[in-house]
Amino acid sequence: MSNAKENSVSRLPVMSSKRVLTASNSLENHDCQPAQKKMRKEPEPTKPKAAATIIGNRRPPVATTRAPAAKSVRVAGAATVAAGPSRGVLKQATASTVPKGGAVPKAGGGGGTRRHAWDLKGKVSDMEGKIANYQGKLKSASLENEQLKGSMAQKQLRAAEMEQELQRLRAQLSDYEKNQQTLLAVQDELEKTITDKNTIQRDLANLKAKFTVMETLRESQEVELQTLKMKLSVQESTVARLQTSLRDSEEQVRSLMETVAQQKDDIHAGEMERRQLHNTIQELKGNIRVFCRVRPLVDGGLSEHIQLSANDNKMLALAKTEESHVGRAGDTQKSYNFSFDRVFGPKASQQEVFDEISLLVQSALDGYNVCCFAYGQTGSGKTFTMEGDDTEETMGVIPRAVQQMFKTAKRLEEQGWQFTFTASFVEIYNENLRDLLYTGKANKRPEHEIRKLANNDVTVTNLTYQKVCSEDQVLNLIALAKQNRSTAQTNLNDRSSRSHSVFQLAIEGGNAGRDINCKSTLCLVDLAGSERMLKSQSQGERFKEMTAINSSLSNLGIVITALANKENYIPYRNSKLTYLLQGCLGGNSKTLMFVNISPEPDSFGETLNSLRFASKVNDCVIGTATANRK
Ligand SMILES: Nc1ncnc2c1ncn2[C@@H]1O[C@H](COP(=O)(O)OP(=O)(O)OP(=O)(O)O)[C@@H](O)[C@H]1O
């Protein structure tokens, strides 16, 4: 509204300039006189050109009197200044400059001619003209004012509208700003989306590349698939053919399995029959058998006093020429004949010897206790027979028996048998037991005692019982036993000759399918030298040794004789040897004795003794053995 007012005022000067000028003229008529007087005192002002232009040539003096009212402006500006302030300003100026009642008629600037002072009528007429003129102007001013008011109202209306419009625009602007924010967010979103799009496009490009590769691969695989399909169809027809053939084969397998089962039964029955027959043969051969083996002479020559029959391998004669007191012609030949289950001459190989006892090894696997002794004087070949040397040809009964044992056990596994073997090796010296498989410190060797268990099994306390499952393991144990024996002896004291060594292999077999178990022991004994010494020749330790040896060997003979005579009491406990071998001797065992003899003439006496002892054993018939089966 204020603006509108200002605007309306500011427009006024153009139109009001006339009014101002007119008013000034009117004022001049009333008030200019004192001013004129005053003006006369002052120097002539600059020529009021504008006033002259508006008022005309007739009113120059008026212009000069008016000049002080617009003192600070030029003539042209006087009109402007007069027009600038409101009409009120002009009145004020008039009041201050024109004294009351002092008006001097003066020619007005209204263009009227200057009247004389007396021309009052003219002056009234002029005044009336002027009034009319002013009234007209007032009218037009009022009209104009009304117009202006209307215009102002319009403007105000317009302003209100514009204000509303402004509010609306502001609201719109706020909306726009909000929209802008939204758009910025959308822009961010869009940029992100564009980034994502670029990423996706890159990924897409990669995927396209991969797809191309895959497509190529797929095509090649398609080709491959086709090939495979063709192969498959071929294979399918082959499979169909094979399935038919498989069905036939299965049928055959079924019938074969039935046959196999039948054959297994037959084999088992055959095996049991074989065992029975085998045992019958062994019994027919005698449950105690004696083999004689003659050691070759060291120089390889022939022994004169030992005579072997060329046709009979069971006979042996010991011949001795007894000198006659009446000269050589009277010498007599004395011959001692012996008969054993088998006699091996000096040329008999280790294999030949073993062949004869291998059947007994088989008996051990069949569940019979087997005991094999080597008896004879020192140097007669007992150790050679039992252990032998290290080569294939010279190895003795123990390694060969073990070899056969594992071989046969393996074969029997196919028939459902499972065997476990436990080895022990003990030395009996001076009626003391010594573990030959001991590997601990020499000074910490434990004491051993023979114990009989509730089930009649005999065991030795603190003895090494080593589970073995291969021939090599047993050979290693034999080597260890040899080493243990050699450390105990000195050059002066060949202890091995005066001690018994007992190798025992406990055998446990089972056939789970047939629910059969068997248990037996294979004893292989290298006895001490059987030579008799004259009491006068043996002193101290030697005497003790001799006594122990003689005692145990003679006790062995006594036990065997008692068994043969089926005596009620068998004196097993009289010596450590018989006590240890209790399970392997007697009714439930098969016993084999090797009597080893030396071929040298000076061993004649000992040879004769050995053969006599062996003969006595050979005459024994120990009761029928029964297999330890459960
Ligand atoms: N049948 C044989 N063929 C070849 N050599 C043999 C035979 N028997 C024994 N010998 C040899 O004779 C020697 C004595 O044999 P061996 O040691 O076996 O006798 P031994 O009776 O065990 O003596 P010891 O009682 O002292 O142990 C050894 O060198 C051995 O190799």
From TrEMBL:
Top-level taxon of origin: Eukaryota
Composition skew (Low complexity), residue ranges: 58-69
Compositionally skewed regions (Polar residues) per UniProt: 1-10
Positions of ATP binding: 376-383
Keyword DNA-binding (UniProt): no
GO cellular component terms, A-Z: microtubule
Localization in the cell: Cytoplasm, Cytoskeleton
CDD domains attached to this UniProt entry: KISc_C_terminal
Signal peptide: none
Cytoplasm is among the record's keywords: yes
Keywords, sorted A to Z: ATP-binding, Coiled coil, Cytoplasm, Cytoskeleton, Microtubule, Motor protein, Nucleotide-binding
PROSITE patterns: KINESIN_MOTOR_1, KINESIN_MOTOR_2
PANTHER family the record matches: KINESIN-LIKE PROTEIN KLP-3 (PTHR47972), PROTEIN CLARET SEGREGATIONAL (PTHR47972:SF45)
Similarity remark: Belongs to the TRAFAC class myosin-kinesin ATPase superfamily. Kinesin family. KIN-14 subfamily.
Protein's UniProt name: Kinesin-like protein
Species per Swiss-Prot/TrEMBL record: Myripristis murdjan
Encoding gene, per UniProt annotation: KIFC1
